[in-house]
Amino acid sequence: MEKEIVKSVVEMSAYVFQRGLVSGKAGNVSGRFKTDHGDVVAITPTLKSLADLREEDIILVNENGENLTKGKPSSELGMHLAIYKAKPDIYGIVHTHSPYATGFAFSNKRIKRLEGFGAIESEYIKDIDYFKPGSEDLAQNAAEALRNEDVIILKNHGVIATGSTVKEAATLVEFVEEIAKTQFVTHVLNSIE
Questions:
Q1: Which residues are within 8 A (CB) of 193 and not within 5 positions of it... i.e. 6 or more apart?
Q2: Which of 6, 10, 63, 116 would suit a FRET pair with 32, their CA atoms being 20 to 30 Å apart?
Q3: CATH 1.10.10.10 given to domain 2-191
């Protein structure tokens, strides 16, 4: 299971980079798997581009955040661990700074939920206030907001999605970016007289 999850984290990291959902050294991806000694999280390293990670770059930590391998995990490790604790049924998390969805995150506009990824139970994708990246406040507020959601917008920051697999979380952040793009175009067209 470990090898399968690590491979998925590498593949989905490359996927979100190739789709333009992250750039530079931004964003982070993780997957969780169970062992006889508790949950283990495989997470992308800090200060490395998601573009061309290798399996040996992925950091393994236990559910308390203690390193099981060499290297330094993403600065958002605390957020990933808090979300996994709040949502025992999810096994993948993807955090991006995708341009259109993040544009909404920096504006006073909200992204409407559209058909195409699960049941629509609320009109808008939930968002939370800005908290400093890597902070305990961000970790706790994101985890609480995601308790009954599959994706949220982090104001002035980006998007974070969860899934039953890493691939499902990656597919969801891509879907959110596409609906944000559509709604951005709609706002622009509606402003033309």
A1: none
A2: 116
A3: no
